Amino acid sequence: MVCFRLSPVPGSGLLMLCLVLGAVSSYALELNLTNSEKATCLYAKWQMNFTIRYETTNNSHKTVSISDFGAATYNGSFCGDDHNDPQIVMQFGSGFSWIVNFAKESSSYLINSISFSYNTSDTTTFPDAKKKGVLTVNDSVGFQVPLNDIFRCNSLSTLEKDNVVQHYWDVHVQAFVQNGTVSTKEFLCDKDKTLTTTVPVIPTSVPSPTTTPTPKEKPETGSYSVTSSNGTCLLANMGLQLNITQDKVASVININPNTTNATGNCHSKTALLRLSGSNIKYLDFVFAVKNDNRFYLKEVNVSVYLVNGSVFSIANNNLSYWDAPLGSSYMCNKEQTVSVSGAFQINTFNLRVQPFSVMEGKYSTAEECSADSDLNFLIPVAVGVALGFLIIVVFISYMIGRRKSRTGYQSV
Ligand SMILES: *[C@@H]1O[C@H](CO)[C@@H](O)[C@H](O)[C@H]1NC(C)=O
Ligand SMILES: *[C@@H]1O[C@H](CO)[C@@H](O)[C@H](O)[C@H]1NC(C)=O
Ligand SMILES: *[C@@H]1O[C@H](CO)[C@@H](O)[C@H](O)[C@H]1NC(C)=O
Ligand SMILES: *[C@@H]1O[C@H](CO)[C@@H](O)[C@H](O)[C@H]1NC(C)=O
Ligand SMILES: *[C@@H]1O[C@H](CO)[C@@H](O)[C@H](O)[C@H]1NC(C)=O
Ligand SMILES: *[C@@H]1O[C@H](CO)[C@@H](O)[C@H](O)[C@H]1NC(C)=O
Ligand SMILES: *[C@@H]1O[C@H](CO)[C@@H](O)[C@H](O)[C@H]1NC(C)=O
Ligand SMILES: *[C@@H]1O[C@H](CO)[C@@H](O)[C@H](O)[C@H]1NC(C)=O
Ligand SMILES: *[C@@H]1O[C@H](CO)[C@@H](O)[C@H](O)[C@H]1NC(C)=O
Ligand SMILES: *[C@@H]1O[C@H](CO)[C@@H](O)[C@H](O)[C@H]1NC(C)=O
Ligand SMILES: *[C@@H]1O[C@H](CO)[C@@H](O)[C@H](O)[C@H]1NC(C)=O
Ligand SMILES: *[C@@H]1O[C@H](CO)[C@@H](O)[C@H](O)[C@H]1NC(C)=O
Questions:
Q1: When you count CB atoms within 10 A of the terminal residue's CB, does the N or C end of the chain come out lower?
Q2: Can you give the residue ranges of the Lysosome-associated membrane glycoprotein 2-like transmembrane domain (predicted)?
Q3: What residues contact 347, with CB distance under 8 A and at least 6 apart?
Q4: Distance from CA of residue 41 to its chain's centroid?
């Protein structure tokens, strides 16, 4: 058992921090934060590991796994006070840091976000890294736990973002510990609930946990073009989100236009847009002409580097998406899905493409997808119907009024 005495934190007196290393399993981590009265105020015990994928100087990729936390320190960990939320801050290895933020609500607390930073300048851990510096991934987890309950998740939880995969298991954590006593009432994660046969008693007054993963943010819209000897021959603006399903687990990857390059070629009957970047080896969109008067997306051929170091590749040359007349562009601002296979789909946002007949590097008139035009179409129709109805009402009242006044005049 290792104990640290931390310097006084303003407003909360002295903090006692005790670490019990290797208590149960060899890699279990345990943190027992105490307040000025030496009463436990935050308790956590968990296991984790990290896998990081990075680009090397010769443009290949390497992965590094971190599962040894032997010399970890917890400087900056804090139980929270009136002004600051609690957090667990952990430093380990060569420049790694790991921060968990908590927040209090009326009858519950949130395990808010998990932030992980690594320093690719360290050449022993990240040999040949192309980009040197501190990189951070910050995941909003948003687990809601009733106050005075200890959160438990023995099942494996995986967070995957950017180039980092985080695994957590055997997790026990309680923030805002009352009266210095860690609760015996466990609040289970969804995965653990299905494992145990005895359903834990959860008071009905407690807000239901929001354990569903937060929806991935929209990808940024990129502008891509292909140039031939005659100038720009293909234009594409789109936000792209790849959805790869492997072993029933979907990983969603947003394409960052800042790190994505476009190449391709243009012929009279086919055109190719090839995107490549740090995590996509290639993503090909092949367009074709049909009936001499329309174009469409015929083929997608993709090869993506996954965070675990493997490569996912798939192609389908029998697609029929983004259909529009030659000489125009295809536009769809709403989210649309291109289903390449059962395991691979592309979600597109703010899409506009013109693979043929580009004049002076500009888009021609757009043919809009039905999802967009539904709205544009419905509004004038609704206004038209309302106006028509009003005209009829005015006309009928006019007729009734005229007839009444005429009969009145005649009877006199
Ligand atoms: C945490 O530390 C306090 C003070 O040292 C101790 O009384 C308590 O039993 C510890 N709790 C756990 C769960 O280890
Ligand atoms: C990149 O360098 C590593 C060694 O640092 C080597 O193993 C790998 O084959 C190289 N890749 C390419 C594409 O040259
Ligand atoms: C990380 O932990 C998971 C779950 O226990 C395990 O499957 C995986 O092999 C571990 N990875 C490394 C690199 O230790
Ligand atoms: C953490 O704090 C200890 C003493 O409290 C100090 O010796 C150590 O250098 C600190 N580590 C970091 C990474 O700040
Ligand atoms: C990252 O690592 C390099 C080399 O070890 C070091 O010089 C640098 O100060 C580190 N950066 C930070 C922010 O810790
Ligand atoms: C991570 O993001 C959350 C909000 O999403 C923020 O409150 C928190 O401070 C961030 N953590 C770090 C270390 O940047
Ligand atoms: C903490 O102690 C106070 C007073 O001793 C008591 O009223 C309260 O119920 C206790 N809270 C918990 C969670 O045990
Ligand atoms: C360039 O334009 C000319 C005339 O419009 C056409 O014949 C030729 O095929 C074009 N070349 C390319 C590479 O598109
Ligand atoms: C990813 O694909 C899976 C399986 O097709 C689907 O259940 C999931 O909703 C998709 N996610 C997104 C963000 O499109
Ligand atoms: C791309 O670059 C722009 C401008 O430099 C920046 O505002 C944006 O955040 C970057 N996007 C990503 C995903 O890094
Ligand atoms: C994009 O192309 C430029 C110039 O060819 C190259 O320097 C850069 O590394 C490429 N970026 C990616 C992400 O492939
Ligand atoms: C996909 O593209 C790769 C690389 O250009 C190529 O080797 C492969 O044959 C293509 N697959 C299909 C089905 O077109």
A1: C
A2: 379-410
A3: 240, 241, 243, 335, 336, 337
A4: 32
Determine contact, residues 114/214, Cβ cutoff 8 Å.
no
Centroid of ligand 7 to alpha carbon of 48 (angstroms): 33
Residue intervals of the chain classified under CATH 2.40.160.110 are 2-197, 221-369
103 to 40, 100, 106: CA distances (angstroms)? 17, 10, 10
Please tell me the number of Cα atoms within 13 Å of 156 on its side-chain side.
7
Q: Are 60 and 53 in contact (CB under 8 A)?
A: no
Amino acid at 160: E
Which residues, judged by CB distance below 6 Å to any ligand atom, belong to the binding site of ligand 3? Answer: 49, 51, 65, 67, 156, 167, 169
Question: How many alpha carbons lie under 13 Å from residue 192 in its C-beta half-sphere?
Answer: 17
Residue 206's CB is within 10 A of a number of other CB atoms, namely: 15
Quote the DSSP letter at residue 13: B
Q: Is the CB of 364 under 6 A from ligand 12?
A: no
Query: What would the mean pLDDT of 294-322 be, rounded to a whole number?
Result: 92
pTM: 0.50
Q: Is the dihedral of CA 35, 37, 38, 44 positive or negative?
A: negative
Pocket test for ligand 11, best of 261, 275, 278, 279 (most atoms within 8 A of CB): 261
Residue pair 32/172 in contact by the 8 Å Cβ criterion: no
| Predicted confidence (pLDDT) at residue 312 exceeds the cutoff of 60 | yes
CA distance 335 to 239: 9
CATH number corresponding to 2-197: 2.40.160.110
299-303: long-range contacts (C-beta < 8 A, 24 or more apart)? 300/338, 300/340, 300/346, 302/242, 302/340, 302/344
